[in-house]
């Protein structure tokens, strides 16, 4: 086992660089060419993100270039006589893809969404489809779908994905009956929307401060890792998270702190995400026009101040399709074209609404449950209310075996589980990662 990979998996929720769980097996990192000449292996990077902000270009010039280039990127990828689909959410990225499709072709395009059929994501996606006049299909995600596909998810990704996304494969098996190619809006919220940025990052005075801001984002914080692992194993890996973080941070050469922050996210979290695409390739082709070279080249010239808070993204979407920009955005539940103040009020209201539901559940000691219908899945609620879900994870997590006891403090895992099922704390994602690793051990070790 690669102990550095194990440490990163639980510290950050992902692998960085070329790591896998296997000590002598590596992945080929993005934008790399591997050459074997009969004797030696060499790896060469042929491209990497390089921000070159252009402060002389106007906002309107940027928007015009973005719209023109993105429409061309989508059109170019629809030239073949194939059946096309778009994975549609309640967000802005996939909506932008639909907006860029020629109106004469939209009637033949299948847009689809997934989740509880009455959740905000599906309802907004249906609204987008109706306005764009595409075909639409909604696929319900149930706890059973995730539980029954969990082992396959771990097997096909060799443990690199966590089982919380194990609904993706069965959904695309359904969609292959309707489409040959599926478009998505991969990472546009980060690259153009500045969704990982905030004022503190953009206005950061020095690299040390930026390092401290970025390094706070963890799946398990350091004190939690200390409780999670056995003392022997923790002593082996305790220095890995900080060392790995510093190593990746120091690779980023961008000058502006906002650009450095985004490039760090792109080279770590975003570089890890496409592992989920690999397992779909025997079912369907996934294409991301948002990663088009010419389109990305424009984004790399946009100053971070304009990317912050979706500022230029909203202008781009309004120019691309004023009609689709009027439809609510799932993070705020107000129109994507609404003033930023309304976005802020909307997100605050939605946060307060969900917090009130949680407090009511705790105050009533579980007798009153008002379902959260915002997203595709509600792991937190399933752990508290779904008996089959509870049994599945209890069997996985609370039964110590020889393969896992060298790694984990079983009492702490039981504490996390009890806190979750009683509604005292939302440990759902942590429990999903722990279950994923236990399945990996049972499958591969």
Automatic annotation (TrEMBL):
Signal peptide: none
One GO-annotated biological process of the protein: asparagine biosynthetic process
InterPro entries: Asn_synthase (IPR001962), ASN_synthetase/amidase (IPR051786), Rossmann-like_a/b/a_fold (IPR014729)
Superkingdom per UniProt: Archaea
Domain named Asparagine synthetase: residues: 68-441
MF terms in GO: asparagine synthase (glutamine-hydrolyzing) activity
SUPFAM superfamilies: Adenine nucleotide alpha hydrolases-like
Protein name: Asparagine synthetase domain-containing protein
